[in-house]
Write a structure and sequence with these properties.
This protein is mainly beta. 9% of the residues lie in helices and 53% in strands.
Length: 176
């Protein structure tokens, strides 16, 4: 990646689109273990910051899952040379002590990354797809899908964020 290509992306390309996500967010976290009603539906707060001169986003979030405190982090980037999104994710509920690394298909314009995880019992790996959409400046939707070893995909997590107005933003140390 040359500096010129990155500056163009930061001005009005993919990196400019990623930077639109920066800010304080609050919304609903829903979790499914099986189709039907969600197993959990609770509030979640998130903060997204632009790092490294616009190269990477850091999403930090907190809430509760199954009545227990939950927090997580995700790094999100767009690799100009590979024409793909890349992410690394860790969470106190979903990933245990592991990091999940995910990538999009090269050339896919959607922020939809695919990773995988072990089932913890020595069986085949399961897929995990994360899709992020920002329909407007004040709305951010994250959907995560579990993918069986046979390729069957099912919605597992949905987070619907609304941007927190500047006047309503809590101190950085406040939690949900």
């Amino acid at each position: 990646m040359g500096r010129k290509e990155f500056e163009a992306s930061r001005a009005d390309g993919v990196h400019a689109q990623l930077a639109r996500m920066a800010g304080q967010w609050q919304g609903r976290f829903r979790l499914w273990f099986a189709p039907g009603d969600p197993a959990d539906d609770t509030a979640q707060r998130g903060s997204i910051r632009v790092l490294l001169g616009g190269r990477v986003l850091l999403h930090e979030y907190s809430g509760h899952c199954n009545g227990e405190p939950m927090e997580g982090v995700a790094l999100i980037a767009y690799h100009l040379d590979e024409s793909r999104y890349e992410s690394a994710w860790a969470e106190s509920f979903g990933t245990g002590t592991a990091l999940m690394y995910s990538t999009s298909a090269s050339g896919d314009p959607r922020l939809s990354v695919l990773g995988s995880y072990a089932d913890g019992q020595g069986g085949p790996r399961w897929g995990w797809r994360t899709a992020i959409e920002q329909p407007d400046d004040d709305t951010l939707d994250l959907r995560m899908y579990n993918i069986t070893p046979d390729g069957v995909e099912a919605l597992a997590v949905e987070v619907n964020y609304r941007r927190v107005p500047a006047a309503d933003q809590a101190n950085p140390g406040d939690s949900v």
